[in-house]
Specification:
rod-shaped, single chain, 3-stranded antiparallel beta sheet
């Protein structure tokens, strides 16, 4: 193109006069050609497409679109048509699931028998941005029963009450039995006796009745050396009655007598003269007699 100045208005129209064919300073052009002008490339990158991930860091691409290619040594575009370039992109943080686990169990709380041992939960990666929580909080503990060796169990037992006395009176015996309620185990102390063992002691309820024991001793000497006399024997108690026992037939020291006869005693004649009978004469000298009568002949 070439440009030519139309002209200059030297007298502007006024008071209804005719206007100039163009405004003062207006231009008009006509084609002219020498060489083709360089055509610079016209193009640009389009908008970035969607991020390659829905969360976290991804990438997104934009494509270079050439709307006017360079020509006649015009300036090239900054990129070829269809060329792409990428950039990092991030929409939302991705959910991070918790990572953690329980450690090994600690020592058992007891040296014997049943105790407990604990393990602790350690969180190495905490959950975030809506990720799954761990099964336990950091530092949480859980326990389980543990057993190393059985604890010694001491025997528990005792003697029961004594049974009935073996006799209803006097001195007898009665027995008590040892009952084991918890047997010893695992090296525990033994009971003082075996289960079912017995021991006895003397027992006395009421004294038994004691019957009197006694007897009459032999008779003593006869009270006379001849004829009929008496002789005595004395009752002697060797065991007195007690506690309701039977009495003796007589008290201690009581005597009883019986007749006794050794030899017949000499019997002297007993006799006497009776009264004189009447005189043999009624007058003068007469005689009168008396008769001797033996009442006990000699023997």
């Amino acid at each position: 193109y070439q440009r030519r100045v139309h002209g200059t208005v030297s007298v502007p129209d006024s008071f209804g006069g005719a206007a100039c064919i163009a405004d003062d300073g207006a231009t008009r052009s006509q084609e002219c050609s020498t060489n083709e002008c360089p055509v610079d490339c016209v193009g640009s990158y389009g908008a970035f497409d969607s991020c390659s991930t829905s969360c976290g860091t991804g990438s997104q691409t934009q494509t270079f679109i050439v709307s006017v290619p360079s020509a006649f040594d015009g300036a090239s575009c900054i990129a070829d048509n269809g060329a792409t370039r990428s950039q990092e992109c991030s929409t939302n943080e991705c959910p991070v699931d918790c990572v953690g686990n329980y450690g090994t169990f600690g020592a058992c709380s007891t040296s014997c028998g049943t105790g407990s041992q604990t393990q602790t939960f350690t969180v190495s990666v905490p959950d975030s941005f809506g990720g799954a929580a761990c099964i336990a909080d950091d530092g949480a503990t859980r326990s389980q029963e543990c057993s190393t060796n059985e604890c010694p169990v001491d025997c528990i037992g005792s003697y029961g009450a004594f049974g009935s006395c073996s006799t209803s009176c006097g001195t007898g015996s009665q027995t008590q039995t040892f009952i084991v309620s918890v047997p010893s185990a695992f090296g525990g102390a033994l009971c003082i006796a075996d289960n079912g063992a017995t021991r006895s002691q003397e027992c006395s309820t009421n004294e038994c009745p004691v019957d009197c024991v006694g007897s009459y001793v032999t008779f003593g000497a006869c009270s006379t050396s001849c004829g009929t006399g008496s002789q005595t024997q004395t009752f002697t108690v060797s065991v007195p009655s007690a506690f309701g026992g039977a009495s003796c037939i007589a008290d201690d020291g009581v005597t009883r007598s019986q007749e006794c006869s050794t030899n017949e005693c000499p019997v002297d004649c007993v006799g006497s003269y009776g009264s004189f009978d009447a005189c043999s004469s009624t007058c003068g000298s007469g005689a009168q007699a008396q008769t001797f009568t033996v009442s006990v002949p000699s023997a």
